[in-house]
Amino acid sequence: MRKIEENKQNREFPSYDRLKESCKGIGGMRRFRYSLSQVLRMIMAATGGILILALAGTYEKGQKVQEEGWALKEFERDFFQEGLAAIFRLGYPGAADEAYGADSGEDSWEKRLLLWIGGRNPRMRWKEGQEADDGFSSDPDPSFAPYLESRRVVAESSYLLFGGGEETGIEKADLAGVWESGQDLGEGGEAGREKEPAAGQVQSLPAGTAARHLSGDLPVTGTSYVMEQLADYDFLMKHFFSVHSSTTAGRDEMNAAKLLGEDLSLEKDGDNPQILIYHTHSQETFADYGPDRPDATVVGIGDYLTELLEAKGYRVIHNKEVYDLVDGELDRSKAYDYALSGITGFLQQYPSIQVVLDIHRDGVRENLHMVSEINGKPTAPIMFFNGMSQTPEGPIEYLPNPYKEQNLAFSLQMQLDAAAYFPGLTRKIYLKGFRYNLHLRPRSALIEVGAQTNTYEEARNAMEPLAELLDMVLCPKEAGEP
Fold it and tell me: Is the pLDDT of residue 199 over 60?
């Protein structure tokens, strides 16, 4: 207390009275074990450690499991080691060199501590177990692999939970040139159609698409595209595809040159079945369905498409089995499973079938009536639908589709022909995450014809240009051929 009294006299502590009063309850200043600078160092060390762990965790989350390995492991070790060693040297500069073990060539105690802390990371232990010769036997946490798989399944399911069906509920922005009933079309009826490039202005066509058919009877009345345009990924996706949030379509998959180079032609055979038409949702009806129009269903327009294709020389099987009724009640929860079993039986019975078409009608908002004038007739739009068998998390391993590229090529080739010969007929190709039974043949397509707001006549009229598009891709005319 004599020192404190001296300091009081020397006025070294301007707030002495307040300090003395505060010390009464704890027995005076001699009760403090650490100086203010030591407390600050400890706070800095703890804060630095927390920041290091947070940064390491953020880095780790940004990495895919398959992209990690030794680079991440070494990063984590170095990060822990150098970070905490720097904090140690800051707090105890005089002992830093000796403790760090630089001269001895041996690991210091804090280095061993840091490596032990880094080794508590389950992902690092899992990776080390994978790389060991005996597999997972050296992994101290074998439950981590199932945890990673379950996390992938949960993420995958979250994308597909609200996007599993094929109905789009599409908005006007995705109609790709189809105009709505009641819209002011203006002079020439071109309002609402895409203006880039203007219809009929580009006549140099890419090899493998509509250029193959210029010798036919149909005139090019719409828009044709050059390969330089289609090779631009952004242009291709903007003008021809609508991608649902349940899936993704990368640049490697959406390669126009490769897709348009696919040869999907076949030799017509009137004796053996070549085309199978079926309906996963046979109960889908059109606006005027009722006792006076019982045929106003997707099965009804399937009958007409069968008739048109057979007139072109193909032998067609129209499967009218019902897959979306269970005990007389509408139930679409397992319709694709039931349909898969049914059409697999047809493909086994008739191995000559090379084209599989699932004909649907879309579901859109009730005030949206999509219709165009094609060949002088009011016509419902058609939309080619592709299941990508993948989510943004990656491929759906239990739903592989070995023909995904050919399916995309089939849709894109018909889409480009439609743009050239039947402007306003097609909506953008719609991409979703599931497979939708498109894995059975290379020439498989799910085709949405109109929606519940279209009449049966409008949907039936769409079968005529659709039959032409199918024939253009399946049996293209060569130059000079009549």
Answer: no
